[in-house]
From TrEMBL:
Biased composition (Basic and acidic residues): 81-108, 122-140
One GO biological process term: actin filament organization
Entry keyword Cell cycle: no
InterPro entries cross-referenced by the UniProt entry: LRR_dom_sf, TMOD
The protein, known as: Leiomodin-3
Length: 355
């Protein structure tokens, strides 16, 4: 009883609130704050936004990079601009398309007329005709299946290879034949060969500079990096025989791909280039540069890469279409010249025969 009396006799001035709050832990302070929010009514003189407690505490997600955001917005804007410039307006329907549509409508009307005539028949006749038709269709399908010669899998003839990739190309002998400019070697396929030394890849690229017979060179999934890509670019400046180059699934960055594309303005024989599925993303700047550099090339017909930006994608598609049209026109001119020469020779032969 004496303790309770002593507590009652204490005045409010004798209680040190700061000392009591300093002794509390952070968890106890949070609990006290939540209880006070429930018990004590909010002060109406304080704005509403400042009465509420902060409920958005979370760890920071990372530093804000203003430069990367500005670059991203710039390339998005450039991509939209290129897409609007390259967009081709829709052409009107030709008279041939209109005729085709009319024929399709007539064909659709014909079954409806046949259905009306069938409804006029009795139910028994319709059922019998349906059964006969199903039987005839089944018999015809069985005849077709019986006539098919399905080959059996020759599992005994499968060859076991020493490499997991299955590519049995002899690296040393093939390299020596390329160096000697052997006419029998027209295709070099090193795809998926494991652990090819970087020095050997550089030797292959350097040997192809003076080679005149290799038409296709494939080094997909062989660990090609930036240095090999730069040597490929210098090789394309000198080589005049390679028509297909495949460097997919490697470790080439945007700088290496741009270097290869830049050398295509000096190369007029390469018609197919594949560089998709690289370890590093090319980036928006590299895609814009590729679409700009390809405008100077008139021989590339196929490209194995999916552009992320729609603007460069549309530009490159139009460039490849332009090159295809150019090649078609050249073939027409060559055929016209051949026909002209044949007609002249026949006339000369006839003239010499009469004289």
């Amino acid at each position: 009883m004496s303790n309770s009396k002593d507590v009652e006799e204490l005045n409010e001035e004798d209680i040190d609130e700061d000392e009591i709050l300093a002794m509390l832990s952070p968890e106890e302070l949070k609990e006290l704050q939540s209880e006070m929010d429930i018990i004590i009514a909010p002060d109406e003189s304080v704005p509403v936004g400042q009465r509420q407690k902060d409920q958005t505490e979370k760890p920071p997600t990372g530093t804000f990079d203003h430069r990367s955001l500005v670059d991203y917005l710039y390339w998005e804007k450039e991509s939209k601009r290129m897409l609007e410039e390259e967009r081709v307006p829709e052409s009107k329907e030709s008279s041939a398309d209109v005729d085709k549509q009319e024929q399709v409508e007539k064909q659709q009307e014909a079954p409806s007329n046949k259905a009306g005539t069938l409804l006029g028949k009795s139910k028994s006749e319709a059922v019998l005709e349906g059964k006969d038709r199903n039987d005839s269709e089944r018999s015809s399908s069985q005849r077709k299946i019986n006539k098919l010669n399905i080959p059996k899998l020759a599992l005994k003839n499968i060859k076991m290879t020493s490499r997991p990739s299955g590519n049995e190309t002899n690296l040393d002998s093939t390299l020596e034949k390329i160096r000697k400019n052997c006419p029998s070697v027209t295709e070099v396929n090193l795809n998926n060969i494991e652990n090819i030394p970087k020095e050997m890849l550089l030797d292959y690229v350097n040997a192809l500079k003076k080679n005149k017979h290799v038409k296709s060179f494939s080094i997909a999934n062989t660990g090609v990096d930036e240095s090999v890509a730069f040597s490929l670019a210098t090789m394309l400046r000198e080589n005049r025989s390679i028509k297909t180059l495949n460097i997919e699934s490697n470790f080439i960055t945007g700088k290496g791909i741009v270097a290869v594309i830049r050398c295509l303005q000096f190369n007029e024989t390469l018609t197919e280039l594949r560089f998709h599925n690289q370890r590093h993303m090319l980036g928006h700047h590299a895609e814009m540069e590729i679409s700009r550099l390809l405008k100077a090339n008139n021989t590339l017909l196929k490209m194995g890469y999916h552009f992320e930006l729609p603007g460069p994608r549309m530009v490159v598609t139009n460039i490849l279409t332009r090159n295809l049209d150019h090649q078609r026109q050249l073939r027409k001119e060559e055929q016209r010249d051949v026909d002209l020469i044949l007609s002249i020779t026949t006339k000369l032969r006839c003239h010499s025969f009469f004289f």
